[in-house]
Design goal:
This protein is of the alpha+beta class and 611 residues long. The chain is 33% helix and 22% strand. The protein has 4 domains: 192 residues, Heat Shock Protein 90 (2-Layer Sandwich), CATH 3.30.565.10; 123 residues, Ribosomal Protein S5, domain 2, CATH 3.30.230.10; 54 residues, no CATH class; 198 residues, Ribosomal Protein S8, Chain: A, domain 1, CATH 3.30.1370.100. The chain has an 8-stranded mixed beta sheet with strand order 5-4-3-6-2-1-7-8. Strands 9-10-13-11-12 form a 5-stranded mixed beta sheet, with helices on both faces. It has a 4-stranded antiparallel beta sheet with strand order 18-19-20-24. The chain is elongated, with a radius of gyration of 34 Å.
Length: 611
């Protein structure tokens, strides 16, 4: 008789496998425990974190608590208070119904729980290690539940080693905290990390909660959205187009008060903002959908952040039209006012420039009937055809005869510079390099014309110069006469503080006051008008979890030099020559730091083929 090769997994192994699906990082534990507190009817939920959750995750609530019997039962697999039949899965209104959650957490960490029901005199203290109950005793404690999860993944070293840096892991924890807090504005929440208060959120109306998560001064940038249909009810807030950011982060969808991610619905909102924000920016939104629970499936993903909608196409259309309507109601769309006085409208490019009176010089000795030597109308005796015919012949004075009579000196606008430089193709041949539109340098070679992108060339030169300095010493800083103030969200401020030494090395000297960054000094290479956008792009890089933390310094130098060279122009032939010489001294002179090419050769054969 053959032996059976199928073995039943031991309980603790089965729990660890369940944990692998559900508990991917400290933030997963935070989500499970906070949702349990909410389902227990808590009015105040406190979250305390140490070392981004590796050392301690503590959740304190004033909810209903558990009886001594339930306190033991909740750590068993498939234990839940929410389901009695399979049909209940499709009528879920609560959150923490997953049976494996506490058993999974207890299999990979040291868990301590103190809980008491309101009508009991004593509470229960339970300690669990590796799914084994080590302590079970009656204690005196306040109503509600206190969960402490210590030494996460202590017995799964491979999983512990895969955790990212503290700032990244805490970023995930904060994400989960914000999602739960936004879903429940009627509940008070607090978050502390390593003893420092990050959030203290009072219960209140939805707008107050959204503004407190999106950061100070965000309230006036919020546009309400509300739509009622028989398929879906929509409410929430949109950020005005000028509040759009280059990084994701302030995009929240909720269905029946449960956070979810959906690229299809996100596309509807981006489409509604079409023409108001650039493709590289993301609109901010916090949108709550109310849908019949029987028409959604929340169980298609272990973490339940992906949800299947039966009527997703209808919801897409309703979402698109309601967002457009909300923006239109609050005059976000550009409108034409036919009664407005337009006589004094000034083009935007001139609004910041001081008006300059044109200087007119007149040459009193100029004779309009005397042809200039350079004029094509010369008759050999220095007189125009008009004068030769005593002014009564068929020949009229040519434009060349008159063009020097009134010579107007005026400030060169960008357009004038462009046209001059285009004409300069012929005029600057003796130098060898031609400038076109301030952006490109053309340099003749034996095989044709070498075209160099000025901005990318300056970027490569600057990056090569600064990356060498940066490794050995802090980059030179330019002190501001008055500090520049920049508003940051709590997340951005945390990012800045956690990378402060690195940013000081870049040349930024800043002081943090709550949610305001006071910039006292900035890198010398960075023009003052680029400081604001440079800080935005640096924060975007720091927030990008795909960037290798070991290589983050190089990313920041690359971003700094990109901002420092974005307005680079070459206007004089000697500047063009110096640019070419310096560029070719760089080791990697063919490519910009982002990998795009700096130069391209237009072959004479290719040029000739166009004629």
């Amino acid at each position: 008789m053959s032996m059976s090769i199928i073995q039943l997994l031991p309980e603790h192994i089965a729990n660890q496998i369940a944990a692998g699906e559900v508990i991917q990082r400290p933030a997963s534990v935070v989500k499970e425990l906070m949702e349990n507190s909410i389902d227990a009817g808590a009015e105040f939920v406190q979250l305390h974190i140490k070392d981004a959750g590796k050392t301690l995750i503590q959740v304190v609530d004033d909810g209903d608590g558990m009886t001594p019997e339930d306190a033991v039962k909740c750590f068993q697999r498939h234990a839940t208070s929410k389901l009695k039949s399979a049909d209940d899965l499709f009528r879920l209104q609560t959150k923490g119904f997953r049976g494996e959650a506490l058993a999974s957490i207890a299999s990979i960490a040291h868990v301590s729980m103190r809980t008491r029901k309101g009508d009991s005199e004593t509470g229960t203290h339970i300690e669990v290690e590796g799914n084994t109950i080590k302590t079970n005793e009656q204690i005196v404690c306040s109503k509600g539940t206190i969960f402490e999860v210590k030494n996460l993944f202590y017995n799964v070293p491979a999983r512990r080693n895969f955790l990212k840096s503290e700032s990244i892991e805490f970023g995930h924890i904060r994400d989960e905290f914000e999602r739960v807090a936004l879903a429940h504005p009627d509940i008070k929440f607090s978050l502390h990390h390593n003893g420092q208060e990050i959030y203290q959120l009072q219960s209140g109306v939805l707008r107050m909660r959204v503004a407190s998560i999106f950061g100070r001064n965000s309230n006036e940038r919020l546009v309400p959205i509300e739509e009622e249909t028989n398929i879906v009810s929509i409410k929430g807030f949109l950020g005005k187009p000028d509040a759009a950011k280059k990084t994701r982060g302030e995009q929240f969808f909720f269905v029946n008060n449960r956070f979810f991610k959906d690229s299809y619905f996100h596309h509807a909102i981006v489409k509604a903002f079409d023409g108001m924000i650039s493709e590289k920016h993301y609109p901010s939104y916090c949108i709550y959908l109310d849908v019949d629970p029987a028409k959604i499936d929340v169980n298609i993903h272990p973490t339940k952040t992906e949800i299947k909608f039966e009527e997703d196409r209808f919801i897409y259309s309703i979402l698109l039209s309601s967002v457009r309507q909300a923006l239109g109601k609050h005059n976000i769309f550009p409108t034409l006012d036919f009664e407005a006085e337009t006589t004094f409208d000034i083009p935007s490019s001139f609004r910041k420039t001081e008006p300059v009176e044109p200087q007119i010089t007149v040459d009193p000795s100029f004779n309009p009937f005397q042809t200039q030597k350079s004029s094509g109308g010369s008759t050999g005796n220095g007189f125009s055809k008009a004068l030769k015919n005593e002014g009564f012949g068929q020949a009229m004075p040519s434009p060349a005869d008159w063009e020097q009579f009134y010579h107007i000196e005026e400030e060169s606008t960008d357009q004038a510079v462009i046209s001059n430089q285009t004409i300069g193709f012929q005029e600057e041949q003796n130098v060898g390099n031609y400038m076109v539109h301030d952006r490109y340098v053309f340099s003749p070679t034996k095989s044709g014309l070498l075209v160099i992108d000025v901005k990318r060339a300056k970027w490569r030169i600057l990056y090569t110069e600064l990356i060498g300095k940066f490794i050995h010493q802090a980059l030179e800083s330019q002190q501001m006469l008055f500090p520049i103030e920049k508003e940051l969200t709590k997340t951005e401020m945390d990012l800045w503080l956690s990378h402060e030494k690195l940013l000081n090395q870049l040349g930024f000297q800043c002081e943090c006051q709550q949610e305001t960054l006071l910039i006292h000094g900035a890198p010398v290479v960075l023009p003052e008008n680029s400081i604001d956008t440079c800080i935005d792009s640096l924060l975007a890089d720091l927030q990008d979890r795909d960037i290798d933390q070991g290589d983050v310094a190089h990313h920041l130098v690359r971003r700094l030099t990109q901002n420092a060279s974005k307005d680079a122009v070459v206007r004089r032939p000697e500047e063009a020559q110096a640019l070419i010489e310096t560029l070719f001294q760089c080791e990697d002179h063919a490519l910009a730091p982002n990998g795009k090419k700096i130069m391209h050769t237009l072959l004479l054969t290719d040029i000739a083929s166009n004629f």
